[in-house]
Amino acid sequence: MIASAIRTVETFQVPPRWILVRVGTEDGRVGWGESIVAKRARAVRAAVADIGENLIGADARRIEDAWQRMYRDGFFRGGPILMTAAAGIEQALWDLKARSAGLPVHDFLGGPVRERVRSYAWIAGDDPAGALEHARQRVGQGFSAVKMNATGASDHLDRVTTIDRTVGQVAAVREEFPDLGIALDFHGRVHRDVAKVLLRELEPFRLMWVEEPTVAGNEDVLRELRRWSGSVPIATGERLLSRWQFRSVLEDGAVDIIQPDVSLTGLFELEKIARMAEAYDVAVAPHCPNGPVSLAASLQVAYCCANVVIQEQSGGIHYNQGYAGLPSGELFDYVSDGDLLRTHQGFFVRGEGPGLGVVVDEDAVRAADTAWRMPDPNWRHEDGRLAEW
């Protein structure tokens, strides 16, 4: 038995809605990763167990080989459950490998190209309200960029209501903060006919980007919306899973910014996607309204990829504040050394800590492990039809 052989793969559900993955080796070393898809937490934990069992006894140092096995060896491949399970394990293997060498992960991926990474903070809520007041708070915390949802439930024919409310909130923030970066997340809720008008109405406010501007799965509509968006940059990608899916979006030429999530793609795949996007002169703004390990993994890629322009983070996000009856939680609840995750005047400062750069408090994680459940929102239109969340 080789000392670096994988011995255990475990998952933990901790508040507010995070799924942490622990990989242990025969020689007693430990690495941590993070999976997502909180609404299907039991399925994710089962997938981690299934995939992880196949890796018991494998050399933890052979990360690409492990990823190939997790992705290809089950015959059926892809999908958010299998991909996030594999991503959590893969992050933990990078943490193990780099920690054993006493180096940060970004040193294995070409080394750093920057000293700090700009960040943005969330304002308003899932059905946005109070955006201006919340923007004031975020500016006071040192952030130079914010993001908010454009609207709550949106229907084909609610043009006037949706447009007036959305444009009004953006206008109020822009009027008070002329230099603030403002991103607007359509969240895949807005149908094409409404999106066309909204994009045109929003152009004067100089947005950083409009995100997921069409209903999920309709990425082929992005090229049409590009014609309506004028100078408004279009971003998408948080639900895409691999470089093959991102290749199609990049080749289509309709997107200015891609947003892969390290807890769906995996860490090395995120780096590969960013390098591929660079060839198309497309920026990367990694999606990460997740927990501390996911953010640490995403930052490792940000430090070594020059076209990563800004990093999302979940500090103070509405999902952490008892969303849908879940317990509250914050980024620093489960790390004993989390300096890498602290923003300084709106920037993450590069650290040299080994592995992913954070020290997970295993006792706190085990004590907090609970079978919380994040229910589907079941949003409905006035006539009873299901609405996009």
UniProtKB/TrEMBL annotation:
Keyword Cell inner membrane: no
GO MF, any single term: galactonate dehydratase activity
Enzyme class, first EC level, given as a word: lyase
InterPro entries, alphabetized: DgoD-like, Enolase-like_C_sf, Enolase-like_N, Enolase_C-like, Mandel_Rmase/mucon_lact_enz_CS, Mandelate_racemase_C, Mandelate_racemase_N_dom
EC number(s) recorded for this UniProt protein: 4.2.1.6
SMART domains (UniProt xref): MR_MLE
All copies of domain Mandelate racemase/muconate lactonizing enzyme C-terminal, residue ranges: 128-235
Domain of life: Bacteria
Keywords tagged on the record: Lyase
Protein name: Galactonate dehydratase
Taxonomy of the source species: Bacteria, Bacillati, Actinomycetota, Actinomycetes, Micrococcales
Encoding gene, per UniProt annotation: dgoD
